């Protein structure tokens, strides 16, 4: 049945023009398996994921580099990474390794990514990027924000301990001058959210991460608004629930020595909202000479 669904989609005469003009890369989500899937690799998982690899993953970018290595790609990974222009990308698998959605949200052992994927992801966030790469984009099939209280257990809002660990790694990356942007979907609504570091923490405000959650591409819109800011940790920037077709575009340019990202949201074929982000400029402190003034002189 899963193979039949893929064949029907790709055999559609409406698909060919789209596929010929746009490049597609893929992350795994629940509807590749079953709604709100949180049973990791048990049950129908194998029957569902086999066709997904055949029709989707086989054209994906390289598998992620294994944590603790410089260039060894992790064998059998279902998460991916690559660099395109000024952006380094990491594509998460949020379904294959997650704990039950029903486990307590703050439970320390609860995971969405599993041990190996989390290690590779944190290593990627910590990794210095080549010159000119000022952005790290994370593709997550479910929203990172906890501002969607309806069925929040299926989002990162239900995995708060692991989410906090990832946020701290994102702020570290931002503090080093590489801004983190999360791309997500799933909720059939649009929301832009900012994740600022805690006040008076070791991370500057400029290290904040941002999320653009945009969906659906071609499906029904949410029948009622469900996004709501619940605290100062996840800050609402903009929210539009309506629209059966939503997508966003990114333009990144170097302007006066700064890397500027512009996001534009399109809903039902019309431009509806745009915003800009700037990659932080990190000013390195001058190295202080050690010892006293007289230690700078050598006497022969």
UniProtKB/TrEMBL annotation:
Transmembrane feature ranges: none
Matching InterPro entries: Metallo-depent_PP-like, PhoD-like_MPP, PhoD-like_sf, Phospholipid_Metab_Enz
Domain PhoD-like phosphatase metallophosphatase: 1-231
CDD domains: MPP_PhoD
Pfam short name (any one): PhoD
Protein name, as recorded: PhoD-like phosphatase metallophosphatase domain-containing protein
């Amino acid at each position: 049945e899963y193979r039949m669904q893929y064949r029907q989609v790709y055999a559609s005469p409406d698909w060919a023009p789209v596929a010929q003009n746009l490049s597609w890369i893929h992350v795994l989500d629940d509807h590749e398996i079953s709604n709100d899937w949180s049973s990791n690799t048990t049950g129908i998982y194998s029957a569902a994921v086999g066709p997904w690899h055949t029709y989707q993953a086989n054209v994906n970018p390289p598998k992620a580099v294994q944590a603790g290595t410089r260039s060894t790609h992790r064998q059998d990974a279902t998460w991916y990474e690559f660099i395109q222009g000024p952006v380094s990308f990491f594509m998460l698998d949020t379904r294959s390794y997650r704990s039950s959605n029903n486990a307590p949200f703050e439970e320390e052992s609860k995971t969405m990514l599993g041990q190996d994927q989390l290690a590779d992801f944190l290593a990627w966030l910590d990794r210095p990027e080549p010159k000119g790469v000022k952005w790290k984009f994370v593709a997550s099939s479910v929203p990172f924000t906890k501002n969607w209280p309806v069925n929040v257990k299926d989002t990162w809002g239900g995995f708060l301990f692991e989410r906090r660990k990832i946020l701290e790694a994102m702020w570290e990356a931002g503090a080093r001058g590489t801004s983190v942007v999360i791309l997500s979907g799933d909720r059939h609504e649009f929301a832009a959210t900012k994740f600022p570091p805690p006040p008076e923490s070791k991370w500057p405000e400029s290290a904040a991460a941002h999320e653009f959650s945009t969906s659906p591409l071609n499906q029904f819109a949410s029948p009622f608004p469900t996004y709501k800011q619940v605290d100062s940790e996840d800050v609402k920037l903009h929210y539009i629930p309506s629209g059966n077709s939503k997508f966003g575009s990114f333009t990144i340019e170097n302007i006066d020595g700064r890397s500027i990202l512009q996001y534009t949201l399109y809903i039902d074929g019309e431009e509806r909202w745009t915003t800009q982000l700037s990659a932080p400029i990190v000013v390195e402190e001058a190295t202080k000479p050690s010892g006293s003034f007289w230690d700078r002189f050598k006497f022969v």
